[in-house]
Prior knowledge:
The complex is a heterodimer. Chain A is mainly alpha-helical. Chain A folds into two domains: 19-68, no CATH class; 76-303, Orthogonal Bundle (MetI-like fold), CATH 1.10.3720.10. Helix content of chain A is 70%, strand content 3%. Chain A has helices at residues 12-39, 70-77, 79-111, 116-131, 134-145, 151-160, 170-197, 202-211, 215-243, 247-252, 264-273, 278-302, and strands spanning 51-55, 59-62. The model of chain A has no long low-confidence stretch (mean pLDDT 91). By secondary structure, chain B is α+β, with helices and mostly antiparallel strands. In chain B, 46% of the residues lie in helices and 13% in strands. In chain B, strand 4 and strand 5 (154-155) form a beta hairpin. In chain B, helix 3 (54-70) crosses helix 15 and helix 18 (402-417) runs antiparallel to helix 19. Chain B is globular, with a radius of gyration of 25 Å.
Amino acid sequence: MGATKPKKTYSTGAFFFVAPAVVVLLAVGIFPLLFAAGVSFHQFLLPKVHWSGNFLGVWPIYDAPLTWFDNYIAIFQDDSFRDALTRTFLFLIINLPLELILGLGIALLLHQQGNEFLKKICRVALVVPMATTFAVVGLTGRLLFDGNYGVLNYLWSLIFHSRPDWLADPNLAFFAISVMEVWQWTPFCALVLFSSLTMVPPEIEEAARLETAHWWQVLWRVQLPFMLPGITAILILRTADILKLFDVVYIMTKGGPGSATELISLFVQRIGFRAFDQGVASAQAIVFLIIATVLSRIYIKLVYKEV
Amino acid sequence: MVAAKINMKKLLCALCAGVAFLSLGLSVAKAWSLEEASKDYKGTEIKVIFLDRPGYRATIKMLPEFEQKTGIKVSYEIVPYESTREKEVLDFSAQGDLSIALVDLVWIGEFAESGWIVPIDELEKKFPNLTDPDLDLNDFFPLLLNAFGSWNNTVYGLPFDNYSGLLFYNKTMLSQAGFDKPPETWDDLLNVYGPKLTGTGKFAFALQSRRGETQSCDSFMRFIWPWGGSLLDAKFKPNLTDPKDQEGLEFRQKLEKIMPPGIVDFDHNEAVNALAQGEVAMITEWSAFYSTLTDPKTSKIVNDLAIAPEPKGPAGRKPALGGFSLCVAKQADDKRQGAAWLFIEWITSKAKAKEYVENGGVSGRQSPYQDKDFVAKYPFIPPMVESWQQGVPEFRPRFAEWPQLSEIIAEWGTKMQDGQATVKQASDEIDKRVEDVLQKAGYYDGKKTLAQ
């Protein structure tokens, strides 16, 4: 007789501790996701469908025709969707490294010894952009970049005697929304990386500084390994946030001029809540979710390493 | 003799009966009052969405009187225009709690076809005692009742917040440039007034063109109808490559040289502000902006402001038309439907029309504007009334697919305007996409009637 594997046991207390979180997750996360996945296989024009009861008393049923993969085929044939996706990745590729590099610079400055009082003020100041609501960031962006009354154009005209159309020129508008994104989220990267730097044992760092006169050697060989979990977290969180960036851009440009700043979340919102084509919008959201999940797995695989 | 007496008696009886019947009828008519009609509805709460615009502020000022007379509570939520349709569609789809639908003229097809609003005929039959004998639908401007409140020959709502596109201009700037009247045609505006009013940091004209309904309605469509063009032909096939449409859209491109740079980032506020600050000489805007331009807190040109109808194109004056009606929501229960019907009748009534205008609203009824002394106090009224005589109900199509079309036009209209695409390229692209939307909606295979 072989040895039997000991059976895992769980206490009732543990079950009751975990259950509320699972119920909430099911209600606000899993159920809407499954519903959206279901809707994505239907021609679901909100003003035209009608609720016709519940399956097992829980799952709502509508009289929307089943179209299988038509919505998925339609979005990949849609040039505008592909353009919005490309634009979003361009935005991600430009801004995420910029936020990381600037954040790292600030973190290293804060990590330097001395000026403790100033560093405390800086740490508090860094929280302000992150704590500002998206709508206010968007409105600040409009006030800053307004062609006629903007602060930026006032200063620009003093030096260069011209007034660029920041929000009316396709390239400048893309630049303007990038500036606001970097302004708001570089502090987040700085604070995460700064907290990672405090994890480096002081004696190791001190020894490394005695061994080499080059600061980048210390950064590369000693500090960076401690920062990798933080960098992975930044990559995952900021990628997810940038991919779903909506409010700031909507308030600053509404995706215009033309479609120069129409990121994928604005595009999906337009289909879902202007055209009310929930079927196509859900298919876009599901594709989008798959892309974000794949990217997260790639980050973890390539970047994340335990020290 | 006896026979004559009997006949006289019969005649007298008949006369008495007639008089009694008439007086009874009159007393019934006289007896109708808001207080009496609403007595069964005391304590009912009705919900409606309002915008932050003068007509709604006027209504809010007048509400206490209605609530006091009827005991009906009117709860309103003020929502930005851009979110209004989204909020209402979600509420009606989910059988929410709105008792009244605020319907922009371009949503009437969608709301009516979705069965979210109750036709007035039905309300009159359902609530015979609640219908004001003085409702008089013929007193509304026919264009407004048709465009704002009706769909497929059925009246669903009463015109409530009414606009027309007008030419607002700075008469001092025009007079300094040697003009004693505003341009009569678009061609004059561009070629005669434009060069003299543009220069030294000032511009002749500003056309709000920001992406959204502003681009599709205020900018793009404004250059279709006055040139004799249309968005769709009689068979609902997209029509933008028609030479008349192309001529109008090419004309819009030429306006760039007399407008401030970055016009594709101008929304209503930017255009109105440019005129109010004396930076541009003329704008074409909704009549509702009259109060902003005559308020010394927001305008530097209070004494320089003058108003005229929009300029004419080669096909005549076809000004922009916009506005909202109030409709009773089908999802409301009978009690709320009755209370909502009373409120809609009251706020759009002949009796309240002047008070509504005095508080900053624009009534859609003809009767108040027949009083010359009253009209003299509001300079925007005569050009607006003139515009309502010549407007096009389908200035923007009013069928359910317009929001989708509007998004397409907004995207490609701004691309056209700022040179990312030529007029022809953008028109082809809009036509292709519009046809696709209408094809899917079933207009080409007979599933839907060609109503707009």
